[in-house]
Amino acid sequence: LFKQDEDASVVDAAFQFLRALGPKAEVELLDALSAAAAEHRRGAALSLGMMKSARAAERLDALEPEEADADVKETFFGVLLSLGKPAEPALIKRLDSPDEARRTRSYGGLKESKSPEVLEAVGKLFPREGSKDCVDFAFEILRAAGAAAEPHFLAGLKSVQERGREKAVDGLRHLKAAGAGAWWAPGAAVPA
Fold this sequence. Notes:
The protein is an all-alpha fold. The protein has 11 helices and no strands.
């Protein structure tokens, strides 16, 4: 009925029934992310987010950039932020966004991650990041990685932003205080 009936009230009732089924209707809710009605796309995303559907991450990643309705687009992005590990590839892609607010929120969504893919992506962008908030989030992600972040902090010494260079120094000091990292060891060459 959700896909086939022409009566809007029947379609709405069928959609509400799908939402009430929760995980039992995951496949149908994934399909509803492409529904004609914006309120159905938004509702499907919210339901999938509440059930922490790992399968939703890839679908939302594909649909979110092209979504025409601003509220639905925001809901898709918000659900991606809430999905954790399954959404990491989607959030990593959004770290390159020209929109500072999206980058900041993407860094925030990745903050708890310990994956090497997140560390590599954040480390690569750390020296290029121009936003104070994004630099601060990137620093927190790198600092949590411990000694694995050392090359990224060293690269950050050449950051385009003074804040990035300061955070790189802070990160290297943190590594030294924790007894991690190799660049500060007696006899080690000072990085250029």
